[in-house]
């Protein structure tokens, strides 16, 4: 669910000034454009729709806008670097250095931590096929 949906849709409650997860920002959806992330997709040819490693030089971090829009082949430096952390290449592929609380949530990153908390939480990275051909 996180890889597909986390921060890809705008929070309808925030638009109505009713989101209780705005401060601190723990909402599953985005409130401002610079928090929005694009869904990482692996194309039929094995390549990603955007790079998990090369940042876009045209992306405006303040506004969340890129002249190339969703078709941009580069990583957008969104608030919290969510496009990178929740990319197929990186999500839950490394172990978090922080402990979990009684509910099993990360004490630093909360419910939405992009790092693994234990061996069962780890997943193998999905690599772009072109990077394995080098």
TrEMBL record:
<dbReference type="GO" id="GO:0008270">
    <property type="term" value="F:zinc ion binding"/>
</dbReference>
<dbReference type="InterPro" id="IPR045234">
    <property type="entry name" value="Unkempt-like"/>
</dbReference>
<keyword id="KW-0863">Zinc-finger</keyword>
<dbReference type="Pfam" id="PF25427">
    <property type="entry name" value="zf-CCCH_UNK"/>
</dbReference>
<keyword id="KW-0862">Zinc</keyword>
<feature type="domain" description="C3H1-type">
    <location>
        <begin position="50"/>
        <end position="79"/>
    </location>
</feature>
<dbReference type="InterPro" id="IPR000571">
    <property type="entry name" value="Znf_CCCH"/>
</dbReference>
<dbReference type="InterPro" id="IPR040594">
    <property type="entry name" value="UNK_Znf_1"/>
</dbReference>
<feature type="zinc finger region" description="C3H1-type">
    <location>
        <begin position="50"/>
        <end position="79"/>
    </location>
</feature>
<feature type="domain" description="C3H1-type">
    <location>
        <begin position="90"/>
        <end position="120"/>
    </location>
</feature>
<protein>
    <submittedName>
        <fullName>Unkempt family like zinc finger</fullName>
    </submittedName>
</protein>
<dbReference type="Pfam" id="PF18384">
    <property type="entry name" value="zf_CCCH_5"/>
</dbReference>
<keyword id="KW-0479">Metal-binding</keyword>
<feature type="zinc finger region" description="C3H1-type">
    <location>
        <begin position="90"/>
        <end position="120"/>
    </location>
</feature>
């Amino acid at each position: 669910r996180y890889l597909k949906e986390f921060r890809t849709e705008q929070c309808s409650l925030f638009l109505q000034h009713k989101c209780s997860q705005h401060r601190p920002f723990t909402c599953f959806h985005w409130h401002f454009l610079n928090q929005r992330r694009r869904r990482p997709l692996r194309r039929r040819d094995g390549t990603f729709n955007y790079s998990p490693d090369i940042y876009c030089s045209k992306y405006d971090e303040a506004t969340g806008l890129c002249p190339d829009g969703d078709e941009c082949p580069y990583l957008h430096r969104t608030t919290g670097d969510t496009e990178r952390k929740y990319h197929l290449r990186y999500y839950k592929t490394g172990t978090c250095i922080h402990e979990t609380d009684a509910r099993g949530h990360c004490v630093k990153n909360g419910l939405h931590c992009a790092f693994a908390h234990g061996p069962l939480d780890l997943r193998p990275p999905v690599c772009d096929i072109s990077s394995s051909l080098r």
